[in-house]
Amino acid sequence: MDEKAIKDHMQKTVDNVRRDLAKIRTGMASPSILDNVYIDYYGTRTPISQAAAISVPEPRCLAIKPWDKGLMQAIEKAIQTSDIGINPVNDGTYIRLNMPVLTGERRKELAKVAKRIGEEGKVAIRNIRRDENEHLKKASKDEGKSEDELKGEMDKVQQITDRFIVEVDKVIAEKEKDILTV
């Protein structure tokens, strides 16, 4: 059993859950909502964060200042065509994104989305456990290990799985708190 590989694989899953949750708007401005918005920068697909300075001048506002003024239109267009649902305001120097206030109903919907993302992450972790257990069973037959040795290794895999499931639950709880806090 390669314990480090299992932990690395499960950690990547937790990181993916965090990244997916960062895309959910909580009503507060966060530069991470622009992580998946790309522009064409001299023929190269580039994230906005690599072509402009992104700041949070107010709790519900993002300010984007391109390093090259010629990119203003490209950034504005990329934001409009993205799925973040915020219209940019271009004042010639900055592009501002004003976050709309979330209603109570919308907050509950977003909390459900966060839970769904968390459940998908937990399923992925359990799939890693299942694959490793199958690998251990096959290796046990090939190497002639006893049932006790196999059970011990499978228990280790379960302990690792439990630890990462708890980590996903913590990440989801934090995001739900952010979403539901007015």
Per DSSP, what share of the residues sits in E-state strands of 2 or more residues?
A: 15-25%
Parts with pLDDT < 50 across at least 5 consecutive residues? none
What's the arrangement of strands in the largest beta sheet? Answer: 3-4-6-5
Structural class assignment: alpha+beta
* Relative helix content: 55-70%
3D shape = elongated
CA radius of gyration is 22 Å
Order of helices and strands: HEEEEHEEHH
Task: Provide a descriptive summary of the structure in words.
It is built from 4 helices and 6 strands; from the N terminus they run H-E-E-E-E-H-E-E-H-H. The chain has 182 residues and is an alpha+beta fold.
Summarize the entry for a quick read.
This protein has 182 residues and is an alpha+beta fold. Helix content is 57%, strand content 15%.
